[in-house]
Amino acid sequence: MKSKKKITIMICSVLIVLLVAFACMMIVSDTPASKGSIIVTGEVNVEDGVPSPASETKEFVVEEEGEYYWIYDWMGEPGMITGMSIKDADGVSVFACTAEGCYAESEPMELKAGTYEVEVVYLTNDEDMRAFLADNGVTEVGSELYNYAENGNWSTEYTVGLESASATSIIFKMALILGVVIGLLVVVIILAVTKTGDDTKNQFDERQELVRGKGFQYGFFAIMISNAVLLFMKMFEIPLFSDLQVAMVLSIVIGISLFACYCIWNDGYFALNEKRTGLLISFGCCGLLNVLITIGHITDGAIIENGAFTFRSANLFCALLFFVIFIALLAKHVKDRKEE
Asked: What is the DSSP letter of 108?
């Protein structure tokens, strides 16, 4: 039986490795290759509120169709308000920004292959500012916008970059796949470590099967009710606390937690001859690992966007799942020791 278990573990490990290799190949093959940046420089002289030249223009070539985001970076001499716009071959603005100096990134967008016009406009009055905003799709603006430069000379340098959205997310995708793979390997290792003896010793008795059946019911209804609540909120456009994906992860966490806690407390979680200490340590380590990953995401500022949890917060809820099960196992262990 031990050799059979070893063969099973080896087969599972090989399948997992092949799955990772296949997923990585799919991600890489789906990544547009085109990216880069250009620098727009110039000298502008303002006399009596009139800039000379009024603007600087440069072309940017997108070689391959795909999903990208624009990066606009300039921190020049203070005092000169500029507007930057990027337009496609049809003259349609795809990204625009106005400021004295900033670092701005667009949302990921689908771009066709072709030549795009990058224009930097020097803005020295409200009339030109409103015209620039209107030209880029902004019609509602405040009564007073900026304190504009009236006289002076400025040296300008603006970096406009294009990054592949697929390329920037490839690390996250691979990390996600790696996390799933590590989770599967951990499960295989836990099964190998905690279950000893032959198959007849790793079975649940009839009472345990009844407890587990009840636990599955509770878990199923918890997931069903939480998904119904999410569907209701989505239908009536009630703001969620997170991305829909994260909300569904939390729904799964609630169901698994309810099933596990019920089975643990009613002696239906462990099969005969299963090592509880090893499982307790495994859950604690998995919870701690997810906490460390969550701390990294918090440090990067990627866990919350626009007041809602992003998909990178999934590790936080996974940590919550492992710690809930860990606490239930520990509490049950203490209770059993007292009863003995």
From this structure: P
- Rounded Cα distance between 74 and 156, Å, is 8
Q: Residue 163: what pLDDT?
A: 76
Provide the whole-model pTM.
0.53
The enclosing H or E element of 326 equals helix 314-339
pLDDT in tens, 162-187: 877 655 455 555 656 666 666 666 66
Q: Which residues, 6+ apart, have CB-to-CB distance to 255 below 8 Å?
A: 219, 220, 222, 223, 226
Cβ atoms of residues 127 and 97 within 8 Å: no
Q: What is the CA radius of gyration of the chain?
A: 29
Among 95, 208, 205, 82, smallest CA distance to 146 is for: 82
DSSP state of 148: -
Exposure string of 284-322, with b = 16+ CB inside 10 Å and e = fewer, is bebbebbbebbeebeeeeebeeeeebbbbbbbbbbbbbb
The domains of the chain, with CATH numbers, are 36-165 (2.60.120.380), 195-339 (no CATH)
pLDDT exceeds 60 at position 34: no
